[in-house]
Design a protein that fits this description.
mainly alpha
């Protein structure tokens, strides 16, 4: 799998976690997901994902830092109530913010671009500009 495909799988896990974080721990959720994950050709690729360092680092990194990431989203979405942010957009923002803050080998611009592409693919038509705006505001604010 290439990095974009792995990032999409991580997004699916992060999105799913937003529904089940009170019911099941992150490790158990990961195992359930990987045991049932199939690619577009119905091929089970759980071993490939299970051994992918980026996938596990990002998934566990996001759920371990979820409160911090959500606080960053809140701080940079001044005109939006957190209740108005879709679960998909929130999951994309969590993933991108984690990459920007904690993954050294991915440039900020790449994380932002990938987040915009994920929003275009998985969320409402206008959500990509919202995601871009939040991430841009965060990056500009961090550099001050």
């Amino acid at each position: 799998m290439n990095r974009r495909e792995v990032r999409e799988a991580a997004l699916c896990m992060i999105f799913d976690y937003s529904f089940h974080s009170d019911d099941i721990d992150g490790n158990e959720q990961l195992e359930l997901y990987l045991d049932n994950f199939q690619d577009k050709d119905e091929k089970n690729i759980s071993e490939e994902l299970r051994s992918d360092e980026y996938f596990t680092k990002v998934y566990f990194g996001v759920i371990s830092n979820i409160d911090e990431l959500d606080a960053i989203i809140e701080a940079n979405s001044k005109k939006w109530s957190s209740k108005r942010i879709s679960r998909v957009s929130r999951s994309i923002l969590r993933l991108a913010l984690y990459e920007i803050r904690y993954v050294d080998d991915i440039p900020e611009e790449v994380s932002i671009n990938e987040a915009v592409e994920l929003a275009k693919k998985f969320d409402a038509d206008e959500s990509y500009s919202f995601v871009n705006g939040i991430l841009g505001a965060y990056v500009r604010g961090e550099k001050k």
